[in-house]
Amino acid sequence: MRNLMQKFMIFMQGRYGTDKLNHSLFVLFLVLWLVNIFVFNRTASLIIYIVELIILGLIIFRSLSRNIVARSAENRKFLPIYNAVTGWFKLTYKKIKDRKYYRYIKCPVCKAQLRVKNKKGKHTVRCPRCGSEFDKTI
Ligand SMILES: [Zn+2]
Q1: Which residues are paired to 135 by β-bridges?
Q2: Is 81 helix (H, G, I), strand (E, B) or coil?
Q3: Ligand 1 center–CA 102 separation, angstroms
Q4: pTM (2 d.p.)
Q5: 111 C-alpha to center of ligand 1: Å?
Q6: What is the mean pLDDT of the chain?
Q7: Where are the domains of the chain?
Q8: How many angstroms separate the CA atoms of 54 and 75, rounded?
Q9: Interval between CA 137 and ligand 1 midpoint (Å)
Q10: 18, CA 20 to 30 Å: which among 37, 79, 105, 106?
């Protein structure tokens, strides 16, 4: 077993390995695989299957690629999308978790998400990011 691991490590030397883009592609692959279980149309199922194979091929190609600079550039281009999606999920989770004591409102100037106490009435809110003040009625 140890010998096999060493052989794998030698094989992977100088290769790119994995990153957030590969992880996300794998999650997409799993989602498509799950969706495909419930698709009963043969043509649609075949198309999803082909897309799954392409994604799997892309993951393997990226992991084994020796062109580390190009793969890093792809990952850097992908990271803002990844951060936007995960940020949305994190914020939604926080909104649900805090819904009893806090409200989330958007700053009208810089569009930042602000957390305010869930107290009824008119409040003056000051945005910590841009410093603008505005009234909010809850
Ligand atoms: Zn602001």
Answers
A1: 124
A2: helix
A3: 18
A4: 0.75
A5: 6
A6: 94
A7: 2-98, 101-138
A8: 18
A9: 17
A10: 37
